[in-house]
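The step that takes the researchers longest sounds almost clerical: writing a folded protein down as plain text. Below is the pair of lines this work produces for a single protein:

——
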Amino acid sequence: MVLSIFVLTLYSCLNDTDDSIKLLKKIVATSADGNSATTLFTYNENKIVSIDGVEKHVDFTYADGLISKTVTLNKTNQLLETIEYTYVVGQLVRTKSLDNYMINYIHNSDGTVSYEKLAINSGNQEVKMYHGILYFQNENFIKDERILDNTASGVLSKYSVSFDYDSKHNPLYNVLGYKKLLDYNEGISSNNSLISTVIASVSKDDQIISSAKFYKKTFTYDLDNYPKEEISENEKTVYLKSQYFY
């Protein structure tokens, strides 16, 4: 959700000569007070080269047709984060942020993906943060259920986020290898997320405290069923309207 300006999705890895296939070139997001921010996308054929926004710039590296590395520059503090992706037979099995964290994935026979996230501390030791299961349906990422592992003794903390979609083209799904990036959540789906539901619960001594939040978006589309405008209905969202250019 934080990456919704950076991360959107495309429709399928089809032939670039197909006139119906579009590549997202620019997003212009406008806030409630009228300020705007532009994000630019550059490509080499159907390989994404970079995403350049107001706050961050991301460079992508490929190996064997798969995204093997991203380097993100935070323009505010000039810090760099490098994330490396490891695959086995075309399936993502590890996401590693150098000197920060690592996510291991297991692809199950029922189509779900089990995962665990480990923090890497200053002593280069791995500390388990949480584990969970990712669910998919109709080429869409529909749910992430996780249990936190770094809680106090006797405390069970759960978190889930689920997504409802339209039936239109998500404008980054055509990018080669993009839909493999499981850490990009709904950004890897074939359609556009309309509603995100976040549920958190903490239980201790037979008492359960839970909360639910809903994040809604509405779209208008062009004649090819790609988004041309997005309106956010969330009161805390910085950018209320986004326009898409191809």
